[in-house]
Amino acid sequence: MAKKTTAEKLATIAQGYTLEGATIELGAAIVDGEIHKEAQVRLPLAMMNRHGLVAGATGTGKTVTLHMIAEQLSTAGVPVFLADIKGDLSGLATPATGSEKLTARTQALGQDWQAKNFPVEFLSLGGDGHGIPVRATITSFGPILLSRIMDLNDTQESSLQLIFHFADKNNLELVDLKDLRAVIQFLTSDEGKAELADLGGLSKATAGVILRELVGLEAQGMEKFFGEPEFDTAELLRTAPDGRGVISCLELPTLQTKPLLFSTFLMWLLADLFEDLPEAGDLDKPKLVFFLDEAHLLFNGASKAFLEAITTTVRLIRSKGVGIFFVTQTPKDVPADVLGQLANRVQHALRAFTPEDAKALKATVSTFPVSDYDLEETLTSAGIGEAVITVMNEKGAPTPVALTRLRAPESVMGPSTDELIQSTVAASSLLVKYGTAVDNLSAYEKLTGQAAAPTGDAAPGLPPVPSTSGASAGSPASQADIDAEARRIEEEILGRPSSRSSSPEPFPAPSAPPVPAPAPQQSPQDGMFGDIAGALGGALGGALGGGLKSMVRSMGTQLGRDLMRGVFGTSSRRRR
Fold first, then answer.
1. Is residue 508 within 8 Å of residue 441, measured between CB atoms?
2. Looking at residue 107, what is its pLDDT?
């Protein structure tokens, strides 16, 4: 086959990236060593929910690529979720400063650069940082994700699912780690012998192993990540008053000491969105784009059931209007079943210093369409801020492979000042709702006969939360105002009537017995679901849901709501 000329290569790229509708501008193509600003490389906004991969060796510019794409998504009115591992992404809230070097770069790309800042909501896991605390209840986190954090084997994971089933069935709310510990201690006590025997597949020895692992989590200080008020993932779908999408930036200052918790918690956020969002079909733009950084942490050592649950979530959440971009070093970090669903590829440079590196390079090249580039040479010689790109066009076909000089972000490529971050958090409407930990009546109080603990202090680094009963005109917002806004968001964005109550639910009197109370008299429908749950427990025993493909529903909970567990064993039930 005759070798193509530079003009022919450029024509192929220009034609392949001439797209209809709104797009994310990625940069200008590099052909035969020269940047050609007339050959712009783009990503269709409507195809962002086809998921993607941003890969490359450390220091090649992956974080800056996320930064640049997030800016354009926000401008297009699309909410974005980012995990800020190094603290660099907080710079989205601060306009960048121009320079001669920056001007020369952007002009060479044909980029009309302007310094801007973007609407950012700073979050932190359990208040471990400066952002709004993000917490989950043990009940909604579910047994599969919790097993992942505790590094349980398949048998122990199945046993933990049985413990959750017992708690659901007996109206024992699992809010935090001490609730789950209390349930396990009850089952392994003399009073709980009969209940333990009824569970069938759960041995006392296995329950003891789970209990020891649970105590280990508490010793590591992980109890702060579990509790109430639980973060409502609908908050990730907000837009700013000017119509731009809110960028939710999760601060992770202690990632190095809790990497597994970080990756699993991000998967909980995705699973919760998956359970809550309605089917949306093909949209002009996604409802949310979710960047899952350090993706290899999610898959390393994961059980088959866990990987199947991730694959199912990635495959099905697309139709709910959510795009997921996995960020990692090489495509081989992502399982083949997941990688096959990532239609948009941004591959930064790879290094081939070792035989293992060379093997990974060949595997990466094999995942790209046939192109006019020598990809092995291109991927090892690409500079910082350059990437090999292929995406899905509006017709569902891959675009031509293009080595691309990427556009420059318009906000600061680095951290914002601590003062700006703290003032942004203090002014956030979410602070009143999530800033203060609470400890309501739950399994621990019911099993020990103790009253619920008093409301906790505000998260570290955050101002005290004002009383909702005495909010002044100058205070951030009252709880009623925030709940009303949340109902509006849920109804308008999720496309269904709000599940939130318009008035607060009465707090139950703390009159719990030291052991689970007898189940209330069941209606015929309650009995039906109870029979189903019992049949599942008896038939599957310790294998109950090895990937939790069966779902257990327990009727007659304290809130009078159904509890449905999804592919991760998560539950969307929240106590509001």
1. yes
2. 94
* Rounded distance between C-alpha atoms, residue 442 and residue 158, angstroms: 23
**CA nearest to 160, candidates 442, 544, 555, 448:** 544
Would you give the end-to-end CA distance of the chain in angstroms? 67
Distance CA 74, CA 48 (A): 13
How is residue 184 written in tokens? 């396990």
The predicted pLDDT at position 536 comes to 35
**CA dist., res. 248 & res. 561, Å (int):** 30
Q: Which SS3 state, helix, strand or coil, does residue 35 take?
A: strand
Q: Which residue has the tokens 């209007």?
A: 321
3-state secondary structure of 213: helix
Amino acid 454: pLDDT: 57
CB atoms within 10 A of CB 409: 22
Question: Which tokens is 408 given?
Answer: 């420059």
Tokens matching residue 11: 């024509």
Distance CA(566)–CA(549), nearest Å, equals 8
Q: Closest by alpha carbon to 170, among 560, 452, 443, 441?
A: 443
Hey, what are 508's tokens? 């139950």
> Is-contact 110 426, C-beta < 8 A?
no
3-class state of residue 323 by DSSP: strand
Cα–Cα distance measured from residue 41 to residue 18, given in angstroms and rounded to the nearest whole number: 9
Report the pLDDT value the prediction gives residue 453, as an integer from 0 to 100.
57
Give, in order, the Cα–Cα distances in Å from 216 to each of 211, 219, 222: 9, 5, 9
In 3D space, the residue among 256, 184, 268, 172 whose CA is nearest the CA of residue 218 turns out to be: 184
Q: Report the pLDDT value the prediction gives residue 497, as an integer from 0 to 100.
A: 58
Rounded Cα distance between 423 and 408, Å, is: 27
E strands, 370-523, in order: 386-390, 402-406
Beta strands 322-328; 247-251: pairing state: unpaired
Report pLDDT digits (tens) over 341-363: 999 999 999 988 888 888 888 88
CB crowding 443-477: b at 16 or more within 10 Å, else e: bbbbbeeeebeeeeebbebbeebbebeebeeeebb
392: which DSSP letter? Answer: B
Q: Are 523 and 516 in contact (CB under 8 A)?
A: no
Contact 380, 349 (CB under 8 A): yes
**Predicted structure pTM score:** 0.79
For 447-500, strand residue ranges (E) read none
Task: Could you list the beta-strand ranges (E) of 333-385.
Answer: 344-347
Pairing outcome for strands 52-55 and 80-84: unpaired
Per the structure block, which two tokens stand in for 364?
Answer: 């990466």
245, 73 Cβ separation under 8 angstroms = yes
Total residue length of the chain: 576
The two structure tokens encoding residue 102 = 């920056």
Residue spans of the chain under pLDDT 70 = 1-2, 253-257, 451-567, 569, 572-576
In DSSP notation, 57-115 reads -TTSSHHHHHHHHHHHHHHTT--EEEEESSSGGGGGGSB----HHHHHHHHHHT-----
Strand order in the sheet with 288-292: 34-44, 23-31, 402-406, 386-390, 344-347, 52-55, 322-328, 288-292, 80-84, 247-251, 120-125, 132-134
